[in-house]
Amino acid sequence: MSAFAAPRVFAPVLTPFDATLAVDIPQLVAYCRWLVGQGAGLALFGTNSEANSLSVAERRAVLERVCAADIDPAHLLPGTGACALPDAIELTRHATQAGCAGVLMLPPLYYRGVSDDGLFAYYSEVIEAVGSNDLRVLLYHIPQLSGVPISHALIERLVAAYPRTVVGIKDSSGDWANTAGLLARFPGFKVFPASEALLGLALPLGAAGCISATANLQPAAIAEVLAAATLEARSACVERVSTIRLALQALPMIPALKAVVAHYSGHAGWARVRPPLVPYGALDARALLAQLRALGFAMPALAQAAAR
């Protein structure tokens, strides 16, 4: 299995929009710098980035602007999965040429009952078309949204065919038995649970870290979990980050996260989402912020970063 030199906590970076619903590049770059400064990698174009509401041209332009902002590409794990195979190839090639640590690849959406043979062909076509020894692929398993599960048998086939390229997976299934099964069956494979609340269970079994929606809010605290020197210290850190995760995970995640960032950054525009999503209600946002404050939550230096 090839090396995957990258941070151990990644945020699926929220995407700010301006009043015309175009991507607000200055705010995005400032936020990316804040996340990196807090110890997180950047999983641009993840689910919580509203990636499926962004065009291929927008995703290319955003990645180029982030790279031009002197953010180390080794911190970048952009999502490049797409329904259309040519789009997936273009995005994956673009990210690889930019020097990103790897790419996070959803399976193609919409079609149901797709076979492992079809999914293997999809990933194989992308890998062969990109044709780069530098490409590192992390699969993205989120069947409750994609409708297309990534089976253990498929992973086994992909790793056998592309051992230097297919190096890990984000497991967003919410099924701990699946995560534990991945860790047991594929030693050395980079397994990233999608919730920091699972790190107490997953790290002793060999998890690589986590790629979590709420890493957008508490990246440094999650990084502390991963850096904890003792089991006791890790348990205390997991307990702290889990309280924040639990406060948010039952909510409409993207609008709620953006409402929190809008408050702590001082930029109300952060609360915007692209249709069909709708912004988080003002009363609900105030109640959430009060709950988070009661838990001792803060986003240190975000307002200063956003003002630069």
From TrEMBL:
InterPro entries: Aldolase_TIM, DapA-like. SMART domains: DHDPS. SUPFAM superfamilies: Aldolase. Keywords: Lyase. CDD domains: DHDPS-like (cd00408). PANTHER family: BLR3884 PROTEIN, DIHYDRODIPICOLINATE SYNTHASE. Belongs to the DapA family. This is Dihydrodipicolinate synthase family protein. It comes from Paraburkholderia pallida.
